[in-house]
Design goal:
Low-confidence stretches: none
Mean pLDDT: 92
CATH topology of one domain: Jelly Rolls
Strand order of the largest sheet: 1-8-3-6
Distance between the termini: 33 Å
CATH class of one domain: Mainly Beta
Structural class: alpha+beta
CATH architecture of one domain: Sandwich
């Protein structure tokens, strides 16, 4: 899904509004393994993923990476609390595949939110969608079995198992790589 279709899916922007809004975004080509933001930095951009895949993660005290979220095509990517509050990020943002992103700065986003009531509506609806996904993931981690969490992930990201290292997936699901391997091995026997 491209950024135009994504915006229109939420709010019926006019042609002129849409052109003005899109003029505030910058197209960026980002290479695999590039870190967009590190823990402790302020996230000044909100990214829309038009091609590629990214993730957010944090480092435990022992240096182990824990994946918080994956960002695929047709999703906004950011350290949301850092971007909207302009405070230091708790997370790293990393590109996992060569990507084409559209980015908008915090300042330009504020201008659009002040200029267009429909943009405020878009931000509200997008926030509700993101919050719903966070609640579903939290519920999955707290109340579902490892197998159910894996199935839930595949429903959200159908081809992720072939695109992302197992360690990233296991940490996202809150399980060991051994448990994840056992689940995948049982799938291959079916």
């Amino acid at each position: 899904m491209n950024i135009t279709d994504f915006l229109i899916a939420f709010v019926p922007f006019s042609h002129d509004e849409l052109n003005d809004i899109l003029s505030h975004f910058e197209k960026e080509y980002v290479q695999k393994n590039q870190v967009l933001i590190k823990e402790g930095q302020v996230c000044h951009k909100l990214y829309f993923v038009e091609q590629g895949l990214g993730r957010s993660y944090y480092l435990k005290e022992d240096g182990k990476e824990v994946t918080q979220w994956f960002f695929g095509v047709g999703n906004f990517m950011s350290s949301a609390d850092s971007f909207f509050k302009q405070s230091p990020s708790f997370y790293y943002l990393e590109i996992l595949e060569d990507a084409m992103l559209y980015s908008i700065s915090h300042e330009k986003m504020d201008l659009l939110l002040a200029k267009y009531h429909k943009m405020e509506k878009f931000a509200r609806l997008l926030s509700i969608e993101m919050l719903t996904k966070i609640v579903h993931k939290l519920n999955a981690i707290q109340f579902q079995t490892a197998r159910e969490r894996y199935d839930y992930m595949l429903s959200e990201y159908p081809d992720i198992a072939h695109r992302v290292p197992l360690g990233h997936i296991a940490s996202y699901l809150g399980m060991t790589q051994e448990t994840l391997s056992r689940i995948r091995r049982n799938d291959s026997r079916k």
